[in-house]
Each structure stands twice: as structure tokens, then as C-alpha cells.
């Protein structure tokens, strides 16, 4: 049975939006000095897939814009939930009114 070498596996970390923006800025600086993406990711402790995903989602955004986007997403989810609850209540009331 082979031993698992934990040093070869990256431990999954959770980053908030501000940390992601800071890491992307650090990545830009490192890459501007001619470093390759793989080495830059290793320096920052992230995978290259994570880097590309973050760059696609947060690239060029400022922290204030990311906070606003996250707040809007939370508000949107809350409103969708409220609409679903009202729609369900409306359907129940229609069934009761029809005598079902």
C-alpha cells in the first residue's frame, strides 16, 4: 500500500472577495515580471485553474464593486425566495377558493 504524500496535494481554502482581488493583483505584478502562470500560482498557493476562474469572474474589478455585486446577488436570492413563497400562497388560496 502506498503512502499518500500530503505535500503533493493542495488543501482547499476559502477566500473572500477581497482576498481574491488582492491575490489577482499580486498575480498581475508577478506576471508582469515575466514569470510563468504555473510558477506564479505556486507562489500564491493556488491552482492555475483557480487563477483562471478568478480572473474570469473578478478580473479588473475593484473591491467596492465586488462587494456591491455580492450584495446584489444576496438581495436577488432573497427576492426570488419571496416571490416563490407568494406564488405558493397564491396557489393555495386559489385551491381553497375553488373548494379543493
UniProtKB/TrEMBL annotation:
GO terms for biological process: DNA transposition. It comes from Candidatus Jidaibacter acanthamoebae. GO terms for molecular function: DNA binding; transposase activity. This is Insertion element IS407 uncharacterized 10.0 kDa protein. It comes from the Bacteria.
